[in-house]
């Protein structure tokens, strides 16, 4: 496809004016590309005639009818047109609510093609929603009465007829600008349709088999370029060579000796893999996966100690200021006594303090810089940046991550995520990264016991939590909303804070925390909770990541069915970090679906984040997996990462074989991916600008 054509605004298509363009805009359709990739949500097969006699219980009817007569029925204080019709098998009534003008079209004695869904009422078959077109004996039926018809998502006053007309016109206008995006050899080897043909068949299929073949072809192409993109990143990284080094072990050994415990097997294995990368002749790009509480941060600090001992600097980037402060405190506790110079950079710093910090950083007087998005800004300069650690990496855009790596000369990259990613996706989505997994928990850590509770059992939950408070423990109450809303029955943090403090636990110190509070107030509340001055926190999911209070032993999550499994698992990871048995109570509403029950049952049965992620993938799709879809990390147009998983793996050897036979395709993949995946390409920013 050519960007010049597909980025043209839809107003340049015949028949789309300002008003229609506004309706399209509400659905995110602005350009030709947006419209041509606005896929049908379903199809109606209008290739087979179905008479009125089969039109009971809202069954589709496709027939040729004859108009018999007109009459009127009362409707909203006035009258509506009622048209009596019949075909060769039965009679029916058309109720033309708001369409009295059809009196001048549906003239008695004339025949029409008819499509609609009706039901039997008052002893007759009635239709209030239907489509018609004049019947002519010698002429073929119109396409909308003789073939498979797409059914699109709608907005505003858009109708199926308008969208079908506009997309059909766009296909006629743009087909000459669409070229096949998959190498010819793959078309025959995998029985694929060329891209122009696949696009036409996905919108206006000539048969169910052709429709399925079109979708398979487009999904194959999308996955093919996903693999090309990932492989391009890997080859680009592998092509960079540097002098192998051997870092001193003095600081690293002293840090290990200062710990009151031994590393787990998973930590030791990950440290060994990271160390080998750091000392190799190529830049590291490694993903460190580990369940909540598995010790990823310590593993990352051990890696940083090697680089710092070698006279270089490390950057540790996290998504929130709250988490940055906690990492800074943890790093200071472990490293400052060993002589490591640590600094915290965040957006709320005073200008004078910020400048002093930046001057020290540029002079090499800071060894480890911890911060949020503030690390991206152009005035942040290192003397010699050797290692970039990015925690919860899916929360940052590709260009943001790249901008940090450009602050050093081929610095090593360590990505971290506490949200387990299903094994079925890891090697594909992160195929350009080496992967380390911490799959063992620290000794003595007890699995969190999870209870499911209906809303009617809330008081029993409150009693169980009070028992924990009486033992000197602390806890969390988590809600999906910040404040009350008339449009929602969901409980909110602000209202429930008042209820809990006044009605349930009067006299017990509590704190309220959510994203709309000033940073200073959030930090003050967290400090009080960490010190034990506050017994329980009432919050939103702002506590999902990075909050570490060993004395917290219980968590209550309201409307648990509204959260993804990965989010629930992350929240549950805030408790059970000490030696005491911990509990999580998942309160669900009476309206919970069977799928919701299935998901919560998984939470009750397992504390294995990787198993939970796999089950979440099966049930809900990839939307909650490491924030992949929500963050824009990977957004596919045609493909479903769950339903098309087999095809995802099938395209991997195809992409590798093509690159092996034609390495020059990498340069071609640049322009092709930019055009084919213009709307939301995986890794597109790096692919285009990197």
SSE inventory with pairings:
Layout: H1 3-6, H2 18-25, H3 32-36, E1 42-45, E2 60-75, E3 78-86, E4 91-96, E5 111-117, E6 119-121, E7 124-127, E8 130-134, E9 148-151, H4 160-174, H5 184-189, H6 195-203, H7 208-239, H8 250-258, H9 265-278, E10 285-290, H10 296-309, E11 313-317, H11 321-335, E12 342-345, H12 351-362, E13 368-371, E14 385-391, H13 398-405, E15 412-417, H14 423-429, E16 434-438, E17 449-454, H15 458-470, E18 474-478, H16 493-504, E19 510-513, H17 519-531, E20 536-539, E21 552-557, H18 565-572, E22 583-588, H19 594-605, H20 609-620, H21 645-661, H22 665-676, H23 684-689
Parallel strand pairs: 4-7, 10-15, 10-16, 11-13, 11-14, 12-13, 14-15, 17-22, 18-20, 18-21, 19-20, 21-22
Antiparallel strand pairs: 1-9, 2-3, 2-5, 3-4, 5-8, 6-7
Helix pairs in contact: 6-7, 7-21, 7-22, 8-10, 9-10, 19-20
Outline the structure in words.
The protein has 690 residues and is an alpha/beta fold. It contains 23 helices and 22 strands. Among the domains are: 1-43 and 166-178, no CATH class; 48-146, Nucleic acid-binding proteins (OB fold (Dihydrolipoamide Acetyltransferase, E2P), Beta Barrel); 255-281 and 295-417, 3-Layer(aba) Sandwich (Rossmann fold), CATH 3.40.50.300; 449-606, Rossmann fold (3-Layer(aba) Sandwich), CATH 3.40.50.300. The strands form four sheets. A seven-stranded mixed beta sheet has the order 6-7-4-3-2-5-8, with no helix packed on it. Helix 13 (398-405) links the parallel strand 14 and strand 15.
């Amino acid at each position: 496809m050519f960007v010049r054509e597909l980025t043209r605004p839809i107003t340049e298509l015949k028949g789309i004016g300002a008003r229609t363009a506004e309706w399209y805009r509400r659905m995110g359709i602005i350009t030709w590309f947006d419209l041509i990739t606005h896929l049908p949500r379903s199809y109606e097969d209008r290739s087979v005639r179905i008479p009125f006699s089969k039109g009971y219980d809202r069954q589709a009817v496709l027939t040729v009818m004859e108009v018999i007569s007109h009459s009127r029925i009362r409707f909203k204080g006035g009258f509506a047109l009622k048209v009596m019709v019949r075909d060769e098998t039965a009679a029916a009534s058309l109720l033309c609510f708001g369409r009295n003008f059809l009196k001048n079209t549906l003239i008695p004695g004339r025949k029409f093609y008819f499509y609609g869904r009706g039901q039997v009422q008052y002893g007759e078959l009635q239709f209030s929603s239907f489509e018609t077109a004049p019947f002519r004996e010698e002429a073929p039926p119109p396409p909308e009465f003789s073939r498979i018809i797409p059914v699109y998502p709608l907005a505003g006053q858009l109708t199926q007829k308008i969208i079908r007309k506009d997309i059909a016109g766009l296909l006629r206008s743009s087909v000459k600008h669409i070229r096949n995006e998959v190498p010819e050899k793959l078309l025959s080897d995998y029985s694929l349709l060329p891209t122009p043909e696949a696009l036409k068949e996905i919108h206006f299929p000539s048969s169910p088999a052709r429709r399925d073949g079109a979708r398979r072809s487009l999904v194959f192409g999308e996955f093919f370029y996903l693999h090309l993109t990932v492989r391009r990143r890997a080859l680009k990284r592998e092509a960079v060579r540097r002098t192998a080094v051997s870092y001193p072990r003095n600081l690293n050994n002293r840090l290990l000796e200062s710990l009151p415990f031994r590393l787990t097997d998973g930590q030791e294995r990950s440290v060994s893999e990271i160390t080998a990368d750091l000392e190799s002749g190529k830049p590291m790009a490694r993903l460190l996966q580990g369940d909540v509480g598995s010790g990823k941060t310590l593993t990352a600090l051990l890696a940083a100690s090697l680089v710092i001992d070698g006279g270089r600097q490390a950057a540790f980037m996290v998504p929130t200021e709250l988490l940055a402060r906690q990492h800074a405190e943890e790093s200071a506790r472990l490293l400052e006594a060993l002589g490591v110079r640590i600094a915290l950079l965040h957006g709320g710093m005073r200008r004078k303090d910020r400048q002093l910090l930046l001057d020290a950083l540029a002079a090499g007087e800071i060894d480890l810089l911890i911060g949020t998005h503030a690390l991206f800004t152009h005035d942040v300069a290192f003397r010699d940046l050797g290692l970039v650690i990015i925690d919860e990496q899916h929360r940052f855009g590709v260009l943001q991550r790249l901008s940090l790596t450009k602050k050093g000369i081929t610095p090593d990259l360590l990505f971290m995520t506490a949200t387990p990613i299903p094994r079925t996706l890891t090697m594909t989505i992160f195929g350009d990264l080496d992967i380390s997994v911490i799959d063992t928990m620290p000794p003595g850590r007890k699995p969190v016991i999870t209870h499911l509770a209906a809303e009617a059992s809330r008081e029993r939950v409150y009693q169980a939590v009070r028992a924990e408070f009486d033992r000197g423990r602390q806890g969390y109450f988590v809600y999906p909303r910040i404040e009350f809303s008339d449009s929602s029955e969901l409980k909110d943090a602000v209202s429930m804070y008042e209820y809990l403090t006044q009605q349930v636990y009067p006299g017990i110190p509590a704190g309220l925390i959510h994203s709309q509070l000033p940073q200073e107030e959030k930090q003050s509340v967290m400090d009080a909770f960490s010190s034990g001055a506050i017994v329980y926190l009432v919050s939103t999911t702002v506590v999902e990541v990075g909050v570490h209070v060993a004395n917290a032993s219980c968590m209550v999550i309201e409307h648990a069915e509204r959260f993804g499994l990965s989010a629930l698992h992350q929240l549950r990871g805030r408790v059970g970090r000490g030696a005491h048995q911990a509990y999580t109570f998942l309160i669900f509403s009476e309206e919970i679906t069977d799928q919701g029950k299935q998901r919560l049952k998984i939470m009750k049965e397992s504390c294995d984040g990787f198993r939970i992620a796999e089950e979440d993938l099966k049930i809900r799709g990839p939307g909650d997996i490491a924030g992949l879809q929500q963050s824009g990390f990977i957004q596919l147009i045609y493909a479903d990462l769950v339903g098309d998983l087999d095809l995802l793996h099938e395209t991997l050897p195809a992409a590798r074989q093509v690159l092996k036979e034609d390495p020059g395709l990498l340069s071609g993949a640049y322009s092709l991916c930019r055009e084919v995946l213009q709307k939301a390409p995986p890794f597109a920013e790096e692919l285009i600008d990197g």
